Amino acid sequence: MPLFIGSHVDLVAPDYLIHAVETSIKNGANTMMIYTGAPQNSIRKPTEIMKIQEAHQLMKMHGMPLDKIIVHAPYIINLGNTINPETATIGVTFLIRELTRVQSMGFSTLVLHPGAHVGAGSEVALASISERLNQVFAEDKTNVTIALETMAGKGSEVGIRFEEIRYLIDHSDHPERLGVCLDTCHIHDAGYDVQDIEGILKSFDQIIGLDKLKVIHINDSKNPKGAKKDRHENIGYGAIGFEALTRFVHHPQLAHLPKILETPWIDELTPYAKEIAMLKSKQLIQGWRETIK
């Protein structure tokens, strides 16, 4: 089985999805993650202009399976906000639209930050997220999987512990529509020992089930373990380190999963080609970041 590795890439006019695919190919990637529009707002261009069929043909030529492509939901969705319920209600409507857009683009996995309690407490937020996701699934007509992302614990985020993700799956009317996105920076910042990959996978399997794992975000962290800050770092320059991240990328139990880099750009230059090459080869190049400035 090939290694499925890529990064977040942008949809840029006028070529949109073609641009994302071409960028990924240049980076040595065979998967990718996109947003269907800006992650900070709800402004969306029609998918009909995004050159989807041409992009699919290019993906097929370069061995990029459609079912390994990941779409990320915008950050503005917060289904856990009970302080201002209108925010959660708007989030439901927008999430349904995003699921439709994902399916119209030919993809099948949408990563979603579970939400934040904004002062009401985690238990209240989890109940709200569960209720709102059930509303989404009751109205949504797609078969797109929502992959709930493990969070770092910044601010009032929920979804920090595996048990919280399990709660959302257990309280879903359609658990078959829910999966998980494991972010290495986030679980490190949440307090998990990322150096102990076997321990993490065992715990994940016992609490959630490895069959629910759909995608892995491969990020180093600027912070010590348990800092709850969510600050991504370039591969090999952070507190997690190259060796631990390489174990995630090449672990046999994770071989079928897409691995997506979301590491920082360097002086407006993308690091992904270098990082992907190193992770593929399992060889860290000391001082690599300085060579692309």
Q: Roughly what is the average pLDDT, rounded to an integer?
A: 96
Overall geometric form: globular
Number of strands: 10
Structural class: alpha/beta
SSE layout:
Elements: E1 5-8, H1 17-26, E2 31-34, H2 52-61, E3 70-72, H3 85-104, E4 109-112, H4 122-139, E5 145-149, H5 162-170, E6 178-183, H6 184-190, H7 197-207, E7 213-218, E8 220-221, E9 232-233, H8 242-250, E10 259-261, H9 272-281
Parallel strand pairs: 1-2, 1-10, 2-3, 3-4, 4-5, 5-6, 6-7, 7-10
Antiparallel strand pairs: 8-9
Helix pairs in contact: 1-2, 3-4, 4-5
What does this structure look like?
- Helix 1 (17-26) packs parallel to helix 2 (52-61) and helix 3 crosses helix 4 (122-139).
- An 8-stranded parallel beta barrel has the order 1-2-3-4-5-6-7-10, surrounded by 5 helices. Strands 8-9 form a two-stranded antiparallel ribbon.
- The model has no long low-confidence stretch (mean pLDDT 96).
- The protein is built from 9 helices and 10 strands.
- Strand 3 (70-72), helix 3 and strand 4 (109-112) form a beta-alpha-beta unit.
- It has 293 residues and is α/β, with parallel strands linked by helices.
- The protein has helices spanning 17-26, 52-61, 85-104, 122-139, 162-170, 184-190, 197-207, 242-250, 272-281; strands at 5-8, 31-34, 70-72, 109-112, 145-149, 178-183, 213-218, 220-221, 232-233, 259-261.
